[in-house]
């Protein structure tokens, strides 16, 4: 019997199908309701239906058409189950329309076999859902696929599930290995990483949240997210890049901060500078970086300033990092704090030659950390000296405000001597440096006077071991004070130190009245040879 083709179906502008209206409407509630509307005229021999958003496009509609024409005798496989399930819901192929055979029922029965599907079939099914029917979870299909997918990951954490490696090879996604985002050592990459990068960010969000709820190792999750975003930023369109980056940042923010790479976070920061991320998302990224800024390098911090900022580097960003570090989960350990102090000393030496850096911002940088972050203030002194050299027009008052960052007690004798002779610094700072040096020498003399009661020192394993009158042993570290010399040499050394204290006292008394004369005889050569910052090279 010849079947009349009295219906044209335009599928998303991709292709036009000529089909029989009665056959399709006997299975599709959507078409049946359309034809039963009073406004639909049937004067023409051929009706035309236009679909603009049919899930799966022409491929899915052809499968449905074959199902209808064959009266439900179409083979349903893992490769087409999700596609048929999604379009069956779209076309409303429910029991009310056709009790037997019913496409929704048939696909649901096929979905019950997901635990027996191969890994590649599960991943492919999830990709079909995200591509062809974004709201597929309304029918519960997303959950039905996510559960076994995450289950395979957790039960086969070290090796690929049997039989899936060769099949999944067609799903592998190539990404640019030159990306600035670090994924650490490639040996840490789990077997499933490459298979999941074909999924969009919405699917990844659902998968990761399910993995977190099932207590999957946060280190593994974070490594995957760094790998995923590296691939997406190398290949995705601009809109997808921004969306994927924001989703990845939000997911990383939900993980234990110790599980992720600081280098990887800086990689995301650098590539996202042009993506115009939301304020909340950017704040979360900066907070994660700031909480482990002690692991950063100088290159990480040298982020170019955004347009309109009066400096070469984004110093405000670094200040926000430091604020996050100091406020993250209580006080930081002294070791970590000193690591940040050393890092900031390097950073100050790099930004100090910037002629556009305002004094107020430079002061913020030098005073951002507590005093305990530095054992020595020599680096701050040298950075300030470099800043004064570039900003030669600063007033005496502005210079004094900047010098407030210096703890003169933490300057070495060489730096104090250099400061006292440095014409770029205010006169008052030279006096403070000399007074600090005098105080140090007096303290040292008091210590050495106390040592006179000690017996002749013995050297034991590189340390000086002395015996007190009461028999106690006191060990002095050799670098602090050399007691290996003979008694006469020690005496001469102490006399020389006492003479130096007297001389310093005389200089301090005469400093204010004879400052003009001293200024002419100052020597400005540095005491230590130091590499120039990048702005000076």
UniProtKB/TrEMBL annotation:
InterPro entries: BTB/POZ_dom (IPR000210), NPH3/RPT2-like (IPR043454), NPH3_dom (IPR027356), SKP1/BTB/POZ_sf (IPR011333). Pathway: Protein modification; protein ubiquitination. Residues 190-440 form the NPH3 domain. Gene3D superfamilies: Potassium Channel Kv1.1, Chain A. Keywords: Ubl conjugation pathway. One of its GO terms (biological process) is protein ubiquitination. SMART domains: BTB. The keyword Transmembrane helix does not apply. The keyword Transmembrane helix does not apply. Residues 5-71 form the BTB domain. Belongs to the NPH3 family. This is BTB/POZ domain-containing protein At3g22104. It comes from Phoenix dactylifera. The gene is LOC103723872.
